Amino acid sequence: MKLLSTRKPYSRRDPSSPVSAKKESFANLDELLQKSDKPVLVDFYATWCGPCQFMVPILEEVSIIMNDTVQVVKIDTEKYTAIANQYDIQALPTFILFKDGKPIDRFEGALPRDQLIQRIESSLSVQQS
User: Fold this and answer.
1) Which stretches are tagged as biased composition: Basic and acidic residues (predicted)?
2) Are 75 and 84 in contact, with CB atoms under 8 Å apart?
């Protein structure tokens, strides 16, 4: 499970260089969701998935742009099969937005950055009303 780090300013990265992500350990996803002080967007992905790789720089940008609003977490479904099964992941990438430890939105497939941000904001505003 990876938490995307938002501590450095955004800069275009060389697509051939590996993605840097802050790794933190949690006993399980439920623990992370319960301890988070803001909504959590979970990206269920696999390294062999083309659309998942397309989303890597987009998720890094969204993590930086929405740092005050949402925490982005990436879960490799090949390494964490139990978590993928728990959330019935059938397609990749699958995104689940959690608030207060509960899922409030779920969608599959790659999205452009602005559409992803709009989807998150829309889900959070609907959930708050």
Assistant:
1) 11-22
2) yes
For residue 94, being part of any structural domain is answered with yes
Residue 3 lies in a domain: no
Over residues 24-34, the pLDDT tens digits come to: 555 678 888 98
The tens digit of pLDDT for each residue in 37-83 reads: 999 999 999 999 999 999 999 999 999 999 999 999 999 999 999 99
For the question of residue 101 being annotated catalytic, the response is: no
Q: Which of 3, 52, 75, 96 is catalytic?
A: 52
Task: Tell me which residue range forms the domain holding 94.
Answer: 28-128
Please indicate whether residue 88 is annotated as part of the active site: no
93 belongs to a structural domain: yes
